[in-house]
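Reagents: none. Just compute today. ASCH domain-containing protein.
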Amino acid sequence: MNNYPEKACDIDRLVRHPKLVAATLAGEKTQQRRDGIYAYPGETFLLEEVVFEVTSVVRQRLGDMSDADARAEGYPSLAMYKDLILKMHSGMEWNEDGLVWVHSFSRQQLE
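Predicted 3D structure written out:
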């Protein structure tokens, strides 16, 4: 954890939009990109009584995103992801060199 900056937000705010919560619960969403750190690897969060663990947090340029990354975000393609992000964040421009934190996570099985 020492190589990461201080958290910008609480882990409970990592996945909040109802459609994204549903996609996460369905196993269609396994990543969330944010401007800041919301969780560190090994931390867990709860969505509707289901536990998810953050497996990695890495820095990525927006321009390095692929269709596979967009699908991991719960979207069918990079073009749709980009379009929706720009609609959600009024006035935002898609900066290929813009850096985001990619939080990858997986559903935890009860033992």
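The mean pLDDT is 94.
Action item: order primers for follow-up constructs.
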